[in-house]
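Task: sequence design from structure.
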């Protein structure tokens, strides 16, 4: 799993840049054992993803608005890949949200506000601005040239060296380990490239599929935020998971 092309420090924020989130969905061998033990050996370990990212040079303490080359494609072991979302993806991504609306709106508060592609386009533009500001990025999860979901960083707290990951996947593409691989890749990037100390994932308490991902990867459950998120006309409790750079043998 070579990682050089995954380093967003080499992305353009000029030629290709326009004028969230999912549920929210460590280091070393301990995490690898946990992942293998819970997934029956399927998929790579977070340790493997971190080893792959170790070849990428560390950034400066607070890098800002670097010049980049237009390149971002990260192959996941199961056959899918990650790439940055682009404005031209808005219609396809909206169609995916719309076809999964009944499933997604159960857990994602933003779904009810996507009556057309315009909110999706705004989200993509914000994600590209995130990248330019060195505040994270938003990526498409792609299988056979078709977008099947999205994953990204909410933002980066450089002062406290922490970030959060959000993600969602089409209902009919679940159960194959794709999102687990994608979260592994982003967590490894946060620790090895950005040298962050903490990665957090927040998930609705009742969203069992989404909760299984941080649990499978060895994230620690820290507690529950009561009625922390409004989804439609109801409030949902959120469980907080975290992984620290020191979570290693």
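Answer:
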């Amino acid at each position: 799993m070579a990682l050089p092309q995954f380093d967003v420090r080499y992305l353009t924020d000029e030629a290709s840049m326009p004028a969230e989130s999912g549920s929210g969905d460590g280091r070393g061998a301990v995490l690898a054992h946990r992942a293998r033990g819970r997934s029956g050996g399927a998929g790579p370990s977070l340790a493997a993803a971190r080893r792959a990212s170790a070849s990428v040079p560390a950034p400066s303490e607070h890098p800002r608005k670097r010049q980049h080359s237009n390149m971002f494609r990260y192959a996941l072991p199961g056959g899918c890949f990650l790439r940055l979302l682009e404005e031209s993806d808005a219609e396809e991504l909206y169609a995916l949200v719309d076809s999964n609306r009944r499933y997604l709106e159960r857990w994602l508060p933003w779904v009810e506000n996507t009556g057309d592609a315009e909110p999706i386009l705004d989200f993509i533009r914000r994600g590209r601005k995130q990248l330019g500001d060195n505040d994270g990025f938003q990526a498409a999860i792609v299988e056979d040239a078709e977008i099947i979901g999205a994953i990204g960083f909410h933002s980066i707290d450089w002062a406290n060296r922490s970030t959060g990951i959000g993600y969602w996947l089409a209902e009919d593409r679940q159960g194959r380990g794709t999102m687990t691989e994608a979260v592994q890749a982003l967590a490894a990037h946060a620790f090895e490239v950005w040298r962050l100390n903490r990665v957090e994932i927040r998930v609705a308490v009742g969203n069992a599929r989404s909760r299984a991902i941080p649990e499978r990867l060895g994230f620690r459950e820290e507690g529950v935020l009561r009625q922390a998120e409004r989804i439609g006309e109801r409030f949902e409790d959120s469980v907080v998971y975290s992984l620290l750079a020191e979570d290693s043998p």
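The chain has one domain: 4-244.
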